[in-house]
Structure formats: structure tokens, C-alpha cells
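1st attempt posting a full record on here, be nice pls
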Amino acid sequence: MKSRRQFLSIMAAAGFGSLLPLPGAASLRRTLDYNDPEDALTAMVKMRGSLVAEDVPHWYYGTMYAVLPGKSPQPLVNFEGSEIDYYEKQPDGSYHAYGATVSFFRDRETGKRLETFTNPWTGERHAVRANSISMKAHYIYAVNGFKRSDDERPLPETPQIQNLLGWRESGDHVWLTMRRAYPAGTPAGEHQLVRGSLAELHDPDTNKVYTTAAPTFVSPYFSWLGMGDLGGHALWVGPAIKLDSVKQYPRELLDFLEQNFPHKLTARPAA
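the predicted structure (as C-alpha cells):
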């Protein structure tokens, strides 16, 4: 007969962690209320970045799939990259979030960085290009919600960020789920799942939680994938981890960034 702890662990793994917390969570001194707009904003920033203006690097890797109409997803390439976040608090209590993101791509069989890619359906071969996200816009996170700065739609007049964030707990684990904000008509979407320590999140002396993440990103195909008129979209799946410095990146990734994208080693906005 399984013990109560084993039972609760099974239930937590099945997604019932917030309903059946493991011992330890109940004794935690909570400093943040997820239902309070200001606390919810603070908790989100601690999980995703830092409450102080500093570069917060994330190393990530995973697999890109082709999702074709009427067919099961098919793996195309593996990816690895860097996403650096920089949250800057504003006088009104909101945050402006800046990012620097670069990905390169690997062969799924050999693990080697790809220089060319041959489409398995069409046979077309193209040079592979790194994915460097460059935009003048930044993200705005406030108690009234969040959006990208180039989105002309205004934020609501009343606080609602607490309704846009999902929180689950189990033991000392806390999960945040949310969607990345895009302007209307953007042909992309991202569901974000971030996991961290409940104790770190509620520690008033910490500015950030050392999290892992499992984002799911849907986007159009890159032209070098040679998908042409096959239809469908790309699906990016893989884990990420928050680090203190880009110096903690794998050597190959750091060398690649230093040699090809040195300006992407910080997300600090230009003066």
C-alpha cells in the first residue's frame, strides 16, 4: 500500500499539485498573493526575469516540428539558443521588458550544427540561417495587463493581470502559465510554462527565482526549410533554464554568439 506522500506525488505529477500540496508548502510564510494585481505582477517578474534591471540569460534547446494539414507532427531540426531578458521598472510601477534572442540549428541525427538543410518532402536544399529576433518594440507588463509596445490597442482601465496568469503548486514547486502577448494579426503564438521554487518566490529578499521553463511556440516556417506550398506551421518544443551569466552557456553556444552576434549578449536597452 502506497504511503500518503507517494500518493500525493502521483497526484502532483498528474496535475493536481495545487489541490493536494505536499508537506512544507503549508508552513511557508507567503509574501505574495496571486489574486492581488500588484503581487501578481511582482511574482510574474521574479519568475520570468528579475525585479532589478539586469540581464537575465536563459539557455534553451529542443526540436522544431513541421505540422502539416492532416498529418502528425514530423521533426525537422533541433535548435539551441539564448534568450536574455531585461526588466526595467517604471515610475508608475509597470515594467518594460527587453529581450535579445538567437537560435542556431542542429542535425537531429548527428547533433552537429547545420550549415545546409534538405527538405525531406521536396528535396530542396537551402543554406541554414540563425534565427535572430530583432525588433524595436519591447513588452509592457502592468497591473492592467500586458502587451507589446507596438500594439496600438490600449490596456484595460482596470487591473486584470491576476486573471491572465495561472499558478499551480506542489511541495516547494510553483508553476506559472501564461501566453506571450502579440499585436493583432501576428501569425505566431507562444504558451509559456515556468517552474521555480515556492520558497524563492515568496522570499522578499530575492529579486528573481531560478526557474526552468517549457515554452511551446507556433510560427510560420523559415524560408530555408523549403516548405513552400505544403501548408501548416512550425512547432518549437524544448526546455529552458535561467542562469546568472552567459558565461554559464555551453561553450559552443557562447562562442557562436561572441563570433556572430556579440550585440545579442545583452538585452539592456540602448541609452
